[in-house]
Amino acid sequence: MEIIRLFCPVEETKRQKYLRNFKKVNPHVTSLSAEKCYHIQVSNSSALSTESLKLLRWILKGPQGDDNLSTDSHLSVKLKHETLFEIGPRFTFSTAESTNTVSICHNVGLKFIDRIEMSVRYLLTLDTNKIAESEVNQLIETVCDRMTQCRYTNENIPKNNFFECFTEPKKRWYYIPVMEKGAAAIRDENTKLGGFSYAD
Fold first, then answer.
1. Is 40 in contact with 102 (CB distance < 8 Å)?
2. Were both Cys, which of 36, 69, 145, 188 would link to 6 (CB 3.0–4.6 Å)?
3. Residue 183 lies in a domain
């Protein structure tokens, strides 16, 4: 299993909308570059021939779009008053867009594609010398739905599959003393596993 990535610029109307929203939060924002990143999980990377990659690019660009997909990102921080962050779907579930795109891929013979998620990378330039992390977090709040999205970093971005950052439990099953402790045993286990509380 492997994840390959393809990049393309965000549509200009969306870029301008993002820029307006960022400026509302922080008036020091002067410019924005943004690109989409497609994270494509493939079960067999050797099956990704030139022909199948051409077909995949055609699907991702859309029927009327230009094929401006690249294997390299065009965004990087070069100045100290720039900041770059990436927002995408949480890794724990597959989005509807991924399900639909994978279904199309399978229907045209690209059976080795397991999942396709799209994130957006934002490169902001500010007119201040230094950007505080709290300011970056405020800007992220503008474009990130924390219920379904998260910030992608070098530490958490998936390399081979979307579930690699989740550690498997040491024990797959274990004994809960319900007969001895009753409902308290279930409540204790619920708390340990991060389940719903009474307030939820």
1. no
2. 69
3. no
Tokens representing 161 are 């599959």
pTM of the model: 0.78
- Whole-angstrom distance, CA of residue 69 vs CA of residue 7: 5
119: number of Cβ within 10 Å: 19
Q: Which domain holds residue 15?
A: 2-152
Sign of CA dihedral 20, 21, 26, 32: negative
Residue 58: φ, ψ to 5°:
-65, -40
Per-residue pLDDT tens over the stretch 29-78: 999 999 999 999 998 877 788 899 989 998 998 766 677 888 899 999 88
Tens of pLDDT along 121-143? Answer: 999 998 887 778 888 899 999 99
